[in-house]
Specification:
The chain is built from 4 helices and 5 strands; from the N terminus they run αβββββααα. The protein is an alpha+beta fold and 106 residues long. The chain has one domain. The protein has a 3-stranded antiparallel sheet with strand order 2-1-5. Helix 2 packs antiparallel against helix 3. The longest helix is centred in the N-terminal third of the chain and has 17 residues. It starts with 5 loop residues before the first helix and ends with a helix.
Length: 106
């Protein structure tokens, strides 16, 4: 019965890795971008050199989808000089989107 032991171990490994990923919180800081924190206590606000960071209400996958769609939408016809500003703006939108932005960029 050595083959029957493989599956419970695989299920255990998957559940442990997904649990540890779920315990992390994301925050967008203007100076250095996206940060990941272990589950912070209630009321915790991360701060960087430019001031308080924005705690994200989205998960990492949704963040990337919204950020990518926002960049594509806003960069059509834009000049090269403002692409950095568009990326920062879209990172903030993806971190804490309104219901309209969720609908628009999904």
């Amino acid at each position: 019965m050595p083959g029957s032991l493989k599956y419970p171990i695989a299920i255990f490994l998957i559940s442990v890795s997904s649990a540890s990923a779920m315990e992390q919180e994301m925050a967008y800081c203007p100076s250095d971008g996206l940060r990941f924190y272990a589950k912070p206590p209630p009321g915790f606000i991360p701060i960087d050199s430019t001031g308080p960071c924005l705690l994200c209400s989205t998960d990492a996958i949704t963040y990337e989808k919204i950020k990518s769609a926002c960049i594509i939408s806003k960069s059509k016809g834009a000049q090269k000089e403002i692409l950095g500003s568009i990326r920062k703006s879209c990172s903030m939108v993806a971190c804490d989107p309104s219901w309209l932005q969720k609908l628009r960029y999904r």
